[in-house]
Amino acid sequence: MSELTIYGASDDLVEAEGIDGADEFGTSGNWTGVLEAPSGETALVYVDYRKSGTWTVALGQFEEDYALPAWPVAFAVDPKLCGYAVAARITVPDGTTLREVSNA
After folding, report:
1. What is the mean pLDDT of the chain?
2. Can you tell me the distance from the alpha carbon of 51 to that of 72, in angstroms, rounded to the nearest whole number?
3. Distance of alpha carbon 33 from alpha carbon 22, whole angstroms
4. Which pTM value belongs to this model?
5. Where are the strands (E) in 10-85, listed by range?
6. Which of 28, 77, 91, 100 is the most exposed place for a label (fewest CB within 10 A)?
7. What gap in Å lies between CA 3 and CA 73, rounded to an integer?
């Protein structure tokens, strides 16, 4: 198993680390990526900059007919990463990739 850590930083960056495709992504406030496991399990990850100056991270189904994978997820503010952003730590199968699908 591998662990993806993903969170917002500054007011225009999404930081991701720990799996293939993880990188620093520029955003104008809302960012969406897709997690794809070798088994075919898929999930969307949303990172949203709020007008309050904080960041939110959420997971969702890729499409209606795709179940949300039962991957362990933990959410917390980690001052070592960014003190005003929720960071998600998602345990995914080895070989899972992250790909940006939207930067709106």
Report:
1. 93
2. 29
3. 10
4. 0.92
5. 13-17, 24-26, 30-36, 42-49, 55-61, 73-77
6. 28
7. 9
